[in-house]
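Example (one chain per record):
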Amino acid sequence: MRYFIHLAYNGSHYFGWQIQHREISVQQTITQAFSTLLKQEIAITGAGRTDTGVHASSYYAHFDIDKCFSKEEIEQLVYRLNGFLPKDIVIYSIFPVALDAHARFSAMERTYRYYVTYKKNPFVLDRAYRIFYQPDIENMNRCCQELYAHTDFSAFSKSNTDTKTNDCTITQAVWMEKGDLLVFEITANRFLRNMVRAIVGTLLEVGKKNLTKEDFREIILSKNRSKAGISVPAHALFLENVRYPFI
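Predicted structure:
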């Protein structure tokens, strides 16, 4: 049987999702919890990598086991896992899926949000990037439209990754104001390493009027990471949702 896990985590104390040789990761922590409670080695496959310090408000993973759990057994397992796991990881639900359903490869799209504040606010320090100017959101949103016209986002990708292609299809990219916070929301079929944080860093240069829309287009066309803006800090980035055809 194959089961999907719906979970969330605060990534502040983890070196990303993927298991590391020497550092603690979310995947390792969850794998150990499942293996301990189910009393057998369980392999957990996630929806994709998140970088060190990045959070996930809604994340999916799957595991296989030679057992068909009843509804009551699943509820009990979720309860026991939440008692066993550290306080910065929560299991929302576990549910059966088809054997060919895959947490990574069956995902249709992913949505990230990045939070920025230009006002001093001690209550968002751990989840928003503090800047010291008020950016021009209209200019930034005009540049967001440019993202829809391209698929090769090498200019926003971490160098020397093992990806076969840097092509992505972005279907949504927009800046919104939510109280004291500026929120950048972006949806695509896939993302490259550091892609969202590099796009945000570059768009903030647009917001400071250091770059024009034409400059932004030229950066994308250059396919050169050194032409783009900084990679903004990880603590303000959240994986908000992963969409599947069967959920």
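Caption: The helical segments are 26-38, 71-84, 137-147, 195-207, 213-222.
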